Amino acid sequence: MKILCIFLTFVFTVSSGPSVPQKNTREVAERKRECQLVRGACKPECNSWEYVFYYCGVNPCCVVREYKKPIINKITAKLHQK
């Protein structure tokens, strides 16, 4: 009978899942890892050349914007030369 009680106690404690603080810690760690995968950084503030990807816990995940070189139309350039 004691073994049955011990077994049931074990099953109920394990089946309840992780506690809330453990779950939050795990989620924050996953968000930081995802932030690093997109070449971002979790820091208190983003600079003007960065954008907020999402929040890792309290701090934003700052990702550098990609610079795209302006495309100059060859037709427009030829018209200006004449």
TrEMBL record:
Protein localization: Secreted
Pfam families: Defensin_beta_2 (PF13841)
Keyword Disulfide bond assigned: yes
Record keywords, A-Z: Antibiotic, Antimicrobial, Defensin, Disulfide bond, Secreted, Signal
Domain of life, source organism: Eukaryota
Annotated InterPro entries: Beta_defensin_dom (IPR025933)
Leader peptide range in chain numbering: 1-16
Domain Beta-defensin: 34-62
Task performed by this protein: Has antibacterial activity.
PANTHER family the UniProt entry points to: BETA-DEFENSIN 113 (PTHR39411)
Entry's family note: Belongs to the beta-defensin family.
The protein, known as: Beta-defensin
